[in-house]
Design goal:
This protein has one domain. 53% of the residues lie in helices and 8% in strands. It has six helices and four strands. It has a four-stranded antiparallel β-sheet, with no helix packed on it. A hairpin with a 2-residue loop joins strand 3 and strand 4.
Length: 159
């Protein structure tokens, strides 16, 4: 999924919701693999498991500071940020709305403000940052699937 997102990135410039769709699908898949889930559905539950349980403390901290709201007086919690990413994914997948959510580009010299679902948000995270969080989480999820004492575990970086 990250590979697919990388392929469309140049076409998605200014439309990060397209990338978020792929990132959140990847997060869901990793969580379902780690948890051994064999059924269908429970997407939101597994997206939460990925970001809130599988990802590193460092990446959870980044996400919990990723969005300011309410005139920048408050920051979305980790759970609220994860739910926001999930809602963006759903809007793209089910409604075709890939143009209503904005994130800053790394090269932006100004702060982006986006309105989404009646919230005025100041995102402090780029699509690339979210990609890195999902990539780190995928590595940590894969490490959980290795048997205890596996020599491969010695190669898992501290994320």
């Amino acid at each position: 999924m990250l590979w697919l997102a990388d392929r469309i990135e140049r076409f998605a410039r200014g439309r990060p919701a397209l990338l978020i769709l792929f990132y959140v699908i990847a997060a869901e898949a990793v969580a379902k693999l780690v948890k051994g889930f064999q059924g269908k559905g429970h997407v939101k539950d597994h997206v939460r498991i990925f970001f809130e349980d599988i990802c590193s403390d460092r990446d959870r901290s980044i996400l919990s500071n990723a969005f300011s709201a309410d005139g920048w007086l408050s920051t979305l919690t980790l759970s609220e940020a994860v739910d926001l990413l999930y809602e963006v994914r759903c809007d793209v997948a089910h409604e075709g709305r890939y143009f209503t959510f904005t994130l800053p580009e790394p090269s932006d010299s100004f702060q982006v403000v986006t309105t989404y679902k009646n919230l005025s948000l100041e995102p402090r995270i780029t699509a690339h940052d979210i990609r890195q969080i999902v990539l780190h989480g995928a590595v940590l999820g894969a490490a959980r699937l290795l048997p205890a004492g596996s020599p491969c575990l010695k190669r898992v970086p501290k994320l």
